[in-house]
Amino acid sequence: RSPSRGLGDVYKRQPLSGTTLRRTFVAEHDLTLEGFRQRIDEGESRDLPGGARFTSKQRLVFDDLAGPALGQRPLTLWRKFIALESTAALAPPEVKEPVLATAQTELVGASVVMTWAPEEQSYGRYYDAREEAESLLASLSVDPWMGWIVGKEKAEDGSWKIPAKDLEGLLATGGDLGFTPGTERAGRRLSRTLVNGVGGGLEMAFGGQSTGELTVRPLGLQTNEEGARHLVFSLSLNGRWNADVTERLSQTLLPREREQGSSFERASLSLGLNGRGQLLADPITGRPVSLKLNCTESVSMKLTEGLETGNLFHQEMSMRGRLELVHRVAERK
Question: Lower Cβ count inside 10 Å, N or C end of the chain?
Fold first, then answer.
């Protein structure tokens, strides 16, 4: 196969109707706190020591069964959420015990059917068997590969570019999965930050302004040590996203916090990623089988919280470090 031909040429055979695919997505962040500033009302700002290490891991596993397709778009897709895990730890300098936090979602074990509505050019969604909150359905994405992996316009070397705004399927597989802060009291603020885009919840970075792109370049057909043949693509990412996350942050307030008068007046998120990776695809079906992306990551959040006392609490936080993304796809036997 010529290197100028690639995934876009064979992808019209996707998805495989009647084939259940087990999808696994892992994102691991390793960040260092660079700046942390707080103040009450218009009082003097207090700069907290930097150097704290923030690590987090998000692991998502779900099974997909696609029905007949129209071009690259499945007309129906059944998805079951097998595992949805999000954990984090913050280790301040010279502190023996790190602050631990988790995020959780009601979707674990649930299944959703998504059907394409041509007249609306969008998917309708409903729960299959077990019912969960209707509000979670609208934010679920249909397929993490189909939205971004096929290029519409190719360069002479066969490469193509995907704008940063279209990369939610790559960086936040499955869309907004309804993660909420866990039950740890000490890590409450940390877990609230986690689900809103700092070290996790990267879907929160989309919907606002973005710059940059992902470049996908075909490298040809290669055979690994086990004899398996794959189409190989190099990935180069340089992107920045800025979003207003006030509404989502407000949704994480506990009932008792609302009753006491707490609220979020403003909250913004900025995410920058720069890195390289590799995508492997099946040369027969065109289906991606694995992807790995290593990036430098910079992330910052600014928020203003209305306290039960009537005061306004302002906080600015910035972190920098590494992000590793891994996708794997396999047929269920």
Answer: C
Residue with token string 């930050």: 193
Residues 253/305/195/176 CA torsion (nearest 10 deg): 80
CB atoms within 10 A of CB 154: 18
Length of the chain, in residues = 333
CA neighbor of 188 nearest in space, from 63, 327, 305: 305
Rounded to two decimals, the pTM is 0.85
Residue-by-residue pLDDT tens, the chain, 333 positions:
333 344 444 434 444 457 788 999 999 999 998 888 888 988 888 877 778 888 999 999 999 988 887 766 778 889 999 999 999 888 877 777 888 888 889 999 999 999 988 888 888 999 988 888 888 888 888 765 554 456 667 888 889 898 999 888 888 888 888 888 776 666 566 777 776 667 777 888 888 999 999 999 999 999 988 888 999 999 999 999 999 988 877 877 777 777 777 888 888 999 999 999 999 988 887 778 899 999 999 999 998 988 888 889 898 889 999 999 999 998 887
Number of C-beta neighbours around residue 248 at 10 A:
20
Instruction: Answer whether 80's CB lies under 8 Å from 332's CB.
Output: no
